[in-house]
């Protein structure tokens, strides 16, 4: 029953609007009663066990598929959910925030300390069925969830997969606030009913850890933030021309010679730790070793495999940025052997946790292949068959390991390579790339440097000679100006596509290239701008009525979500000034005549 106190609180709360839940759910209805969360709240897991659902032949099939969890998907799911429950309690009681910023000064927006509102003592987590896999491919897993809190404090999250439960817990956390004068947390929104599911299955961030060195803890913190945003892919761009930080035990020179300094490497244990940490949070890590361009760091250990290495000062003729250099093609047996050995060392360590491997393929420089002893030509038509065999060889090894490949758009749009249909083709240039990839019938990971690049727009990292000063002043880079969160939020990867083409847009990623970002500014460069991409991918740029989502709504919710990221140790930047959050709607630009 609601006590008189609840009613008083409800009256005071009537001025506040719901600014919870980022990304916005498919449907959400909230009330205006407050409920406390009991300090000893129990999360009760109700789900099927392996023995309930798996026949012996299922178990054998899974074992043959090679997963170490094969005989026990139920145990995997239960472990994942139990860990998520522990994190949920910590986040609710230790890493929460007082939302004073989202209410006008001097309003009584929270229940009175020690008030007699009801409380939530148990949260039931109902899993309707076990996950199809520990590392579901696009389209294989149902990420939907339903969340209900009634006025008496009965709370339930139900889902058809463990990742659905994880998403439901993230939304649950966003309904609760820390109290300003007590240790308790409360929701002002009871009763709550949410039904939710993502629009697009692959929602990721591409993190370049080769141009700058990032310690493991930075990668893990980023994975944490991805999970908060209901993003489920970390694209780990782990090597490039500048450095090779990935230890490959059977080829130790690669990292010992290609790393920036001793210590700046990911050991097999570090990599396993990252994969495990991500899997616990429902994030698949897609490792990319970009080839055949972006490979100069290989020359530190294997100089015979790289042509046009660090040409100076004429590097712009050979590469998009220094140091130039590209892997030999020419059906060179040494190159194929290198790739086979590399992948057979790496992929078995990835395949427990991820169904995808990214073979790269962007910005291949034709001019450099004049230096290839077999090809001796910069004519793309002459180079094409060699690239085709090179890429397909890598993809064969990927498939032999039970995984599917990802490639950058140039492989199919510039080099006309035919890849198998399990391949995901990643766009980075613009909306036209997305369209052209789908026209070819391939599944596409949407992206656009004109909208979803986080790194650039801040100005050049190259130095200019004083004689060229006037020509380049004020030293803008290729994607200036910086894409602010509103610009990122405005990009609809589905715009201009037919219904058939839209179905092929299975993913999207924001990109964190690291020319000018390192651990010191990682969080503030990525967050909360990547959250804007996260909402477009989860909820869609358009609302249910087909209208563009508005900045007035988004800025309030994103502002609140940003406070949650701060509370959980992610140094996300402010999205507007405090007064604007306090006065929702009063910071909308008014143009005379409109
Ligand atoms: C609380 O919500 C109920 C149901 O929507 C509504 O009838 C009531 O007027 C609200 N009370 C306040 C104080 O806003
Ligand atoms: C689970 O699957 C059922 C049956 O397909 C569907 O009706 C429901 O919406 C799904 N999601 C949840 C959260 O139950
Ligand atoms: C790829 O196809 C396009 C369009 O047919 C053509 O213009 C281009 O030359 C081809 N590229 C290569 C490398 O063959
Ligand atoms: C959404 O905004 C974009 C960019 O301004 C515009 O081109 C598009 O027509 C809008 N869509 C709708 C449905 O209003």
From TrEMBL:
<keyword id="KW-0732">Signal</keyword>
<dbReference type="Pfam" id="PF14845">
    <property type="entry name" value="Glycohydro_20b2"/>
</dbReference>
<dbReference type="InterPro" id="IPR029018">
    <property type="entry name" value="Hex-like_dom2"/>
</dbReference>
<keyword id="KW-0325">Glycoprotein</keyword>
<dbReference type="GO" id="GO:0030203">
    <property type="term" value="P:glycosaminoglycan metabolic process"/>
</dbReference>
<comment type="similarity">
    <text>Belongs to the glycosyl hydrolase 20 family.</text>
</comment>
<keyword id="KW-0378">Hydrolase</keyword>
<dbReference type="GO" id="GO:0005975">
    <property type="term" value="P:carbohydrate metabolic process"/>
</dbReference>
<dbReference type="GO" id="GO:0016231">
    <property type="term" value="F:beta-N-acetylglucosaminidase activity"/>
</dbReference>
<dbReference type="InterPro" id="IPR025705">
    <property type="entry name" value="Beta_hexosaminidase_sua/sub"/>
</dbReference>
<dbReference type="Pfam" id="PF00728">
    <property type="entry name" value="Glyco_hydro_20"/>
</dbReference>
<protein>
    <recommendedName>
        <fullName>Beta-hexosaminidase</fullName>
        <ecNumber>3.2.1.52</ecNumber>
    </recommendedName>
</protein>
<feature type="domain" description="Glycoside hydrolase family 20 catalytic">
    <location>
        <begin position="201"/>
        <end position="540"/>
    </location>
</feature>
<keyword id="KW-0326">Glycosidase</keyword>
<dbReference type="InterPro" id="IPR017853">
    <property type="entry name" value="GH"/>
</dbReference>
<dbReference type="InterPro" id="IPR029019">
    <property type="entry name" value="HEX_eukaryotic_N"/>
</dbReference>
<feature type="domain" description="Beta-hexosaminidase eukaryotic type N-terminal">
    <location>
        <begin position="21"/>
        <end position="175"/>
    </location>
</feature>
<feature type="active site" description="Proton donor">
    <location>
        <position position="363"/>
    </location>
</feature>
<dbReference type="InterPro" id="IPR015883">
    <property type="entry name" value="Glyco_hydro_20_cat"/>
</dbReference>
<dbReference type="GO" id="GO:0016020">
    <property type="term" value="C:membrane"/>
</dbReference>
<feature type="signal peptide">
    <location>
        <begin position="1"/>
        <end position="20"/>
    </location>
</feature>
């Amino acid at each position: 029953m609601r006590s008189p106190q609840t009613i008083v609180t409800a009256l005071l709360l009537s001025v506040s609007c719901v600014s919870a839940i980022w990304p916005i759910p498919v449907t959400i209805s909230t009330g205006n009663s407050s409920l406390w969360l009991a300090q000893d709240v129990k999360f009760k897991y109700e789900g099927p066990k392996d023995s309930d659902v798996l026949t012996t032949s299922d178990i054998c099939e899974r074992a043959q598929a090679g997963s170490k969890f094969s005989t026990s998907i139920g145990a995997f799911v239960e472990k994942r959910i139990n860990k998520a429950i522990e994190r949920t309690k910590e986040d609710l009681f230790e890493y929460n925030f007082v939302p004073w910023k989202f209410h006008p000064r001097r309003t009584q927006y929270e229940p009175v300390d020690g008030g007699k509102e009801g409380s939530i003592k148990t949260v039931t987590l109902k899993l309707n069925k076990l996950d199809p896999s520990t590392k579901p491919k696009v389209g294989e897993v149902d990420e939907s969830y339903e969340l209900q809190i009634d006025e008496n404090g009965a709370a339930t999250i139900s889902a058809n997969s463990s990742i659905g439960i994880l998403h439901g817990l993230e939304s649950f956390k966003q309904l609760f606030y820390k109290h300003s004068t007590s240790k308790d947390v409360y929701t002002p929104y009871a009763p709550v009913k949410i039904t939710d599911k993502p629009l697009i299955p692959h929602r990721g961030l591409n993190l370049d850890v080769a141009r700058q060195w990032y310690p493991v803890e930075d990668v893990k913190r980023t994975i944490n933030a991805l999970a908060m945003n209901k993003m489920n892919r970390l694209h780990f761009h782990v090597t490039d021309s500048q450095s090779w930080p990935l230890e490959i035990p059977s080829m130790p020179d690669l990292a010992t010679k290609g790393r920036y300094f001793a210590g700046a490497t990911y050991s097999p244990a570090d990599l396993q730790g990252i994969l495990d940490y991500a899997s616990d949070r429902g994030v698949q890590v897609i490792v990319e070793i970009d080839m055949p361009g972006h490979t100069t760091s290989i020359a530190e250990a294997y100089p015979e495999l790289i042509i046009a290495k660090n040409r100076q000062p004429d590097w712009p003729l050979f590469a998009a940025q220094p140091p130039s250099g590209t892997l030999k093609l020419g059906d060179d047996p040494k190159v194929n052997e290198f790739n086979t050995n590399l992948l057979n060392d790496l992929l078995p360590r990835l395949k427990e946790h991820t169904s995808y491997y990214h073979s790269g393929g962007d910005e291949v420089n034709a001019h450099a292949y004049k230096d290839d002893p077999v090809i001796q030509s910069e004519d793309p038509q002459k180079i094409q068959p060699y690239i085709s065999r090179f890429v397909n060889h890598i993809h064969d090894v990927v498939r032999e390991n039970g995984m599917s490949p990802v490639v950058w758009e140039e492989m199919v749009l510039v080099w006309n390579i035919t890849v198998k249909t399990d391949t995901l083709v990643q766009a980075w240039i613009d909306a036209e790339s997305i369209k052209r990839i789908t026209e070819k019938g391939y599944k596409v990971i949407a992206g656009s440097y004109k909208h979803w690049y986080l790194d650039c727009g801040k100005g050049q990292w190259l130095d200019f000679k004083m004689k060229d000063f006037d020509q380049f002043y004020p030293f803008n880079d290729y994607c200036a100006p910086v894409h602010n969160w509103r610009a990122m939020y405005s990009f609809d990867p589905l715009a201009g596509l037919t219904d058939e083409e839209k179905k092929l847009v299975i993913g999207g990623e924001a990109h964190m290239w690291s020319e000018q970002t390192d651990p010191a500014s990682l969080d503030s460069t990525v967050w909360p701008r990547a959250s804007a991409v996260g909402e477009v991918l989860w909820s869609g740029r358009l609302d249910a009525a087909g209208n563009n989502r508005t900045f007035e709504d988004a800025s309030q919710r994103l502002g609140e979500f940003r406070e949650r990221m701060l509370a959980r140790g992610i140094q996300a930047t402010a999205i507007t000034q405090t007064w604007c959050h306090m006065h929702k709607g009063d910071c909308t630009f008014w143009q005379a005549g409109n």
